[in-house]
Design a protein that fits this description.
This protein has 359 residues and is mostly helical. Helix content is 64%, strand content 7%. The protein has 15 helices and six strands. The strands form three sheets. A two-stranded antiparallel ribbon has the order 1-2. A hairpin with a 6-residue loop joins strand 1 and strand 2. It is globular, with a radius of gyration of 21 Å. Bound molecules: NADPH dihydro-nicotinamide-adenine-dinucleotide phosphate.
């Protein structure tokens, strides 16, 4: 029975997240993306932060009253992974088969998706935002449950580093929800379609792979990382957060109100009369300094676990490196097409792609 429930857990939780996304109050915002074949901007109902805390509370209460152990999701993690895998496949197939082909090959359509934007009841729920909401919330539940397992196993010998790494991951997730609207201005929203990459990616990969640093370390004893080293690791995480959040917010404010300063940085721009690009602040350091930030954050989290020579935890930042290098290439191609000579001027002025002076 528990095994079947373990399998069904991701399906039940993602359905609950959908219901809460629709039912709970939220802010209606105008996004950055326009509706297909129209100049009208999409509208979104954003309430991720409320949905997130409600789901975490629903996880916490039965644990607190000892009805369902806090580490139940950890105990049935392989069944949960299998259930999420099945749900991700079914979702991707269902969402792709419903719409006409956009590419020659069905497999490419399945992977990249066909429909650009899919909304329920005029935006009350949006497929892409729901997928991110599901992935991030499920990741948090996994992290909490894995850490609960570590605490139950080692009690007063538990590792401060494991607790810290989960706290940093929680910070990363809550930060996403606080700035959920900024996500409307990102590549996933304006360049991706809803298919396997996004659907399976958010239902399976995001919650089960991004927690790989805990999968590989929660059973291990406290490595007794010194406090000053933990402090350095937190600083690495925070410096990554400053780069990533800073760049994303600077661009967000610029797109909403091109004259507006951010952190006292007055926007400096280049323009060809039609389009304008930012060339100072975070966007003057490298063309995707936010990607470096993301990699630094993941590295800080992994280092905190206290096993820097284990390969398992490093899979998380390593995956970011692969994803973000290929994302940067795709995005640069897209920008070169969209902005033409203006992009060439920007590339000359800001030559580094991701890491200043290195790449
Ligand atoms: P960016 O936020 O870098 O957005 C790229 C877009 O910004 C370009 O397509 C262009 O779009 C616009 N742009 C680029 N340069 C300029 C400029 N100089 N001035 C004005 N606009 C510019 O990339 P992403 O959307 O990929 O990433 C957003 C965030 O999400 C990042 O922090 C990234 O690290 C994070 N991320 C996280 C992942 C995760 O799994 N945790 C995965 C992928 C990304 P336009 O046509 O609108 O001008």
């Amino acid at each position: 029975m528990d095994k079947a429930l373990g399998f069904l857990a991701p399906i039940i939780i993602s359905s609950l997240i959908f219901a809460l996304n629709v039912i709970l109050p939220g802010r209606w915002v105008t996004g950055y993306v326009t509706k297909t074949n129209s100049r009208e901007k999409m509208r979104y109902h954003l309430n991720g932060i409320y949905v997130f805390f409600t789901v975490v509370l629903i996880w916490f209460v039965p644990g607190y009253f000892k009805v369902i152990p806090f580490d139940w999701l950890y105990n049935y993690r392989w069944f949960g992974l299998a259930g999420a895998f099945a749900a991700g496949m079914i979702f991707s197939l269902a969402v792709v088969l419903r719409y006409p082909p956009v590419r020659k090959s069905f497999l490419s359509d399945l992977f990249f998706g066909r429909i650009e934007n899919l909304q329920f009841r005029g935006g009350l729920a949006d497929a892409k935002m729901w997928l991110y909401l599901t992935g991030a919330t499920m990741l948090e539940l996994n992290a909490l449950s894995f850490t609960a397992h570590h605490l139950a196993l080692y009690r007063d010998q538990a590792s401060t580093g494991i607790i810290l790494s989960t706290a940093l991951l929680t910070y990363f997730i809550i930060d996403y929800f606080i700035f959920e609207e900024v996500h409307l201005y990102t590549y996933d929203l304006f360049a991706e379609r809803v298919g396997f990459k996004l659907g399976w990616g958010c239902i399976v990969f995001y919650p089960y792979f991004y927690s790989v640093f805990l999968w590989s370390t929660v059973d291990l004893p406290d490595p007794h990382t010194s406090s000053w080293l933990l402090f350095v690791y937190v600083l690495i995480f925070l410096s990554g957060w400053i780069l990533s959040r800073g760049a994303n917010l600077q661009k967000y404010f610029f797109k909403k109100d091109p004259g507006r300063s951010f952190l006292n940085i007055v926007p400096e721009t280049i323009s060809d009369g039609n389009n304008t690009l930012l060339v100072n602040g975070f966007w003057g350091i490298s063309r995707h300094v936010n990607y470096s930030g993301e990699i630094l954050m993941a590295s800080g989290i992994v280092l905190c676990t206290g096993y820097p020579t284990l390969i398992g935890p490093w899979l998380y930042p390593l995956y970011y490196i692969l994803l973000l290098i290929s994302r940067q290439r795709d995005d640069d191609k897209r920008c070169a097409l969209k902005y033409g000579d203006l992009w060439k001027t920007y590339v000359k002025r800001v030559p580094y792609r991701i890491i200043p002076y290195i790449y």
